[in-house]
Known about the structure:
- A 3-stranded antiparallel β-sheet has the order 1-2-3.
- The chain has helices spanning about 35, 75-80, 80-90, 95-110, 115-120, 130-145, 150-175, 190-200, 210-225, 230-240, 245-255, 265-280, 285-290, 310-330, 335-345, 350-355, 360-370, 380-400, and strands spanning about 5-10, 10-20, 25-30, 55-60, 65-70, 70.
- The chain is mainly alpha-helical.
- It is globular.
- The chain contains 18 helices and 6 strands.
- The model has no long low-confidence stretch (mean pLDDT about 90).
- β2 (about 10-20) and β3 (about 25-30) form a beta hairpin.
- The longest helix is centred in the middle third of the chain and has 26 residues, at about 150-175.
Amino acid sequence: MEDFVTLTYNGHQMKLPVVTGSEGEKAVDISNLRAETGFITLDPGYANTGSCLSAITYMDGEKGILRYRGIPVEQLAEKATFKETAYLLINGRLPNREQLTRFSVMLNDNSLVHEDLKTFYQNFPRASHPMGILSAMVNALRSFYPELGTLEEEITITMTRLLAKVRTMAAMSYKISRGHRVVYPRPDLTYCENFLNMMFDTPVRPYEINRAAVNALRVFWILHADHEQNCSTSAVRMVGSARVNLYAAISSGIAALWGPLHGGANQAVIEMLTTIQNEGGNYHKAIERAKDKNDPFRLMGFGHRIYKTYDPRAKIMKKMCDELLDSLQIDDPLLDIAKELEEVAVKDPYFVDHNLYPNIDFYSGIVLRAIGIPTNMFTVMFAIGRLPGWIAQWKESMDDPKWKISRPRQIYVGEREYDFVPIHARP
Length: 427
């Protein structure tokens, strides 16, 4: 039996179909609303608008649930590699041993980048933010590695090429920014080990693989791999709907992720902690300011637009954070302030009543700092982790037989029609 919602206006009725998802989520299908009534809906920020049907990620903000392709993110963080998670998101299932081996070989084969790309990096101003550079460089990949057509195998090569090269490009940008020799990927290292080695290996001090750091990075990237229709993912889908090349679509996602209200939040956490430290380490003052509705100050890394309970990723990241700091025995005043701030905030009635729990950005900023990642590279780390999700979302939208170019509407509130006034007659 079909389910409908009836819309009534001025005596006219219209039946709007109800769409039910596999987890019981319900939506009212308004796709024919304008054609039949002349009306559109108004939803600033799209907070109540479903832009697509998707089989990739399920979230329940009220219950604190996050699953990739049906698998709880807690299980993936505990048992899966990042490569397995990427394969799962893009292909819809976990790989068997043969598929994973083939995927690993393809990642290794595509991990090097064209030597001419170094020239691009070296011509960016030294003060350029790594996210701006990464967005531009991913777009530039189209010139070096054209898309390979529409065959499934060729599309897979393009997607794998992005997963392999973005990691290398991120480490390369860090090395070039410091004036150091670029370190190339090694076929004997895992995806996460390779990145840390490319970042921190030097001729005078070879990088020693640290298990705790590698595991923390693995979990960090898995927890960031996808998060439903967020700002950057929606950007990838919207730009991709114009049938641009995959590189351009991913570049738009990187640009969207750059914002401090999105991927830049983990960097903002460390900058906030630095400000607190520079002001004498008085985190109690910061908490009181955050509670003052007349003060524009915000505690970065607390609360979430979707989760109305504890962010499930934050629980995992907190555990990883505690294990990493205990393993590395780091003496860092900034990390001490972070832990003290967390302990006070999670018990404060104001934060509890307003669901302002520490989110993943709070703990991930601490973890990345402990690993040794520079603060301005934090959002780049997020982008590497989110890449499989962006690719999966782009691929799903391209495979949708009901594809349409994204074209939101608006309600015009400007001037009514009036005649042009010559310049000599204007007041």
